[in-house]
Amino acid sequence: LAALAAGAHAQDFPGSKPISIVVPFAAGGPTDRVARDLAEALRKPLGGGSIVIDNVPGAGSSIGAAKVARANPDGYTLLLNHIGMSTIPTLVRNVPFKVETDFEYLGIVNDVPMTLIAKPQMAANNYKELSAWIAANKGKINLGNAGVGSASHLCGLLYQTAMKTEMTPVPYKGTAPAITDLIGGQIDLLCDQTTNTSPQIEAKKVKAYAVTTPQRLTTPLLKNLPTLQEEGLKGFEVTIWHGFYAPKGTPPAITKKLNDALKVALKDPEFIKKQEGLGAVVATDGRIEPEGHKKFVAAEIAKWSPIIKAAGVYAD
Ligand code: MLT
């Protein structure tokens, strides 16, 4: 009878109940930006009902992810999370769910480059001068991040290792509050996604020095920034991806509707224009299929686990 009821419910999904997308970082940051743009593009393919964003920050995105893992698998509580999904298994020791088995994978949304930016008072006029400043200020550098396990934290880990320079981590609930403090000069450096840094770079509120992708970006604002590889950091590459999830056990009729709606959203010219304007690349490859998404996350878990173990940090 329950299966019948679930089946019937699946047919009329989505009904009039609002769909909630949990974002595991503070409002106003890059993850929130992707979620709000995506919600806009999902509205029509999901029947025009309301889609609300629920910011649930903390513990390397695992607090928000846990809320979705234990939610009713009825399609009305979803998760938008980034690369943090692949670091949780290594970083969060007491996590109440398994990334690999406790979610339905609804598809990858986009890939987002990161930028290395500094407070506006930073005297350096290019990456070489910034690198010299770092060498001259060892032990005195404050590097912002959105908490252990965040994208900004991972980029910061790799950057400190590449520069052979320890920096003092200054954690925030997201890189929205982090970039506010950077603008105020309270911290010196931040590695953050272009979806968040582009407007601040354009407004000259922060100073941008390099990008973390192997190739230079193509947006008018960022195309002249060198890659960190160009500046001598061999093999340095961090690209942040965002995935869409439902709780395990959500009926296949519902996960299919959600994945179909995602594919419509990813082709929405408005969504693509917004994302590309901020340096992001909307996903078009096999990762937009649930199986492709799941395989990709498993590969990312394997990639990041040794890097995080070597850093010896935990998010809880
Ligand atoms: C955010 O949305 O605040 C960022 O994704 C935080 C981070 O992961 O650096």
UniProtKB/TrEMBL annotation:
Name of a matching Pfam family? TctC
Kindly indicate whether the keyword Glycoprotein belongs to this entry: no
* Record flagged with keyword Signal: yes
What keywords appear on the UniProt entry? Answer: Signal
Q: Which family does it belong to?
A: Belongs to the UPF0065 (bug) family.
Q: What is this protein called?
A: Tripartite tricarboxylate transporter substrate-binding protein
Which organism encodes this protein? Variovorax ginsengisoli
